[in-house]
Design goal:
The protein is mainly α and about 425 residues long. The protein is built from 16 helices and 9 strands.
């Protein structure tokens, strides 16, 4: 029997990986006509009850000599049976199969169409199902329309993604986007969500409600700010040195500049001055100030070794793909080094670390504000919390010439003093 799409009946299918169940592997399919993704019902092993088998046998015998009667056709009955089996057997809902089989169109031996008693019940059930799915389909369309409206209003892509992803989560948890009370109930019952997550969900729906003029009184959740996690430099270096070529370059760039990951991925080759080791950032996020960075010779060499794919430094690299590979590598490294602190290091953690270290060295809040590109100094204070260092140990180094001193400074060492023998001493926190 040829596999067909249970949604539209098309036989034009793509193989879309395997689904591993307790009964064994099952082939997944993707319909080329309607885009519906489903599992092959022929490969699913279920134990069908005797009631279902009897219903199947009786239905098959009654359909041997059936003919078309009125506006209904034999094909309609066959399609209904196929759709019922594909939806209910795949979900192991055998009671629904038994009830649905008794409700299918029945053709008597003389060729007259005679619907059974359960046919009306099935029709009503199907109507209820369709009516229940309509609001969800409308909500899906409205979320897409909402995202496009935000795009037209000039909202950043990252912000649009955060808003829409939270709305999708609320809808999957049973919320009705047209009912503000439903939104409040779903948010309030999420025990695993922090107050910050709930406040973000409220802000997302607040924007959605403003767009479609839905009146509602948003609940208030108090956000308790936490100190940012500041890793050790050795932990950052371990992630950088063990990552792939492109990922390690991105991580080292974040470490030296403190820019956001979105800003880094949008950098163009024209912004890099390899002769003077300068990098200009004009395409900023969150209305940040444009700024210029002095890069190390090592980082400039790593950037220049990347393949030049288009205008951007990192080509067509997407944030989602980069994050997925980074998370997988971070988990593997944390297991290898037996250091669970590595699991807390995100792309934004490099920005926290850079801001904190710069403030620790200079004690100049305006310098850190300029480095991060903030327009409000209150935002800078979040990143410059002085924390208790886990160790007060330092790496020490000496330099006799100006060239050696320059290399140490570029490597992150801090000048301490010069001895009577004209030897310069440097240190760097471990």
């Amino acid at each position: 029997m040829k596999t067909a799409c249970p949604q539209c009946g098309s036989c034009k299918l793509y193989r879309d990986g395997m689904r591993y169940t307790s009964g064994g592997p099952v082939q997944r399919w993707l319909c080329r006509s309607c885009g519906y993704r489903f599992s092959s019902q022929n490969d699913i092993k279920v134990h069908v009850s005797s009631q279902v088998l009897k219903a199947l046998d009786s239905r098959q015998n009654c359909h041997k000599n059936r003919v078309v009667s009125g506006s209904r056709s034999v094909q309609e009955s066959s399609d209904s049976l196929s759709l019922l089996l594909s939806e209910d057997v795949c979900s192991h809902n055998l009671s629904s199969v038994a009830k649905g089989l008794n409700a299918l169109p029945f053709y008597s031996s003389n060729g007259n169409y005679a619907p059974q008693k359960g046919a009306k019940k099935l029709s009503a059930t199907q109507n209820l199902s369709v009516a229940g799915e309509k609001p969800q389909q409308q909500d899906k369309g409205r979320i897409i329309e909402f995202a496009w409206n935000l795009k037209k209003d000039g909202v950043g892509e990252r912000t649009i993604k955060n808003y829409t992803s939270l709305l999708w989560q609320l809808m999957r948890k049973g919320a009705d986007l047209n009912n503000p009370e439903s939104i409040k109930n779903v948010i309030a019952t999420q025990e695993t969500w922090s107050n910050s997550s709930k406040a973000l969900a409220v802000a997302s729906y607040q924007k959605f409600a403003e767009t479609y003029a839905i009146p509602w009184k948003p609940p208030k959740y108090r956000i308790n700010r936490k100190l940012p996690f500041i890793p050790l430099e050795t932990e950052l270096d371990a992630l950088i040195s063990s990552s792939g070529k492109k990922t390690s370059t991105v991580l080292l760039l974040l470490k030296e500049t403190g820019m956001r990951i979105g800003e880094a991925l949008r950098l163009e080759w024209i912004a890099l001055d390899s002769e003077h080791n300068l990098l200009t950032l004009n395409d900023t996020e969150k209305n940040g100030k444009p700024r210029m960075f002095k890069l190390s010779s090592k980082l400039v060499g790593m950037i220049n070794s990347l393949p030049k794919e288009g205008k951007r430094l990192f080509g067509t690299t997407r944030l989602a793909c980069l994050e997925q590979g980074y998370w997988k590598h971070r988990k593997m490294l944390a297991r290898k080094l037996q250091n669970e602190r590595l699991l807390q290091i995100t792309f934004h953690t490099f920005r926290h670390w850079k801001a904190t270290m710069e403030y620790h060295k200079t004690k100049d809040i305006l310098h850190v504000m300029q480095l991060l590109g903030h327009r409000n100094i209150a935002n800078t204070l979040i990143y410059t919390q002085l924390v208790e260092w886990e160790t007060n140990d330092y790496h020490s180094a000496t330099a006799k010439t100006t060239g050696e001193a320059k290399q140490l400074l570029e490597s992150g060492f801090e000048y301490v003093c010069t001895t009577p023998e004209s030897i310069m001493l440097f240190r760097k926190r471990k």
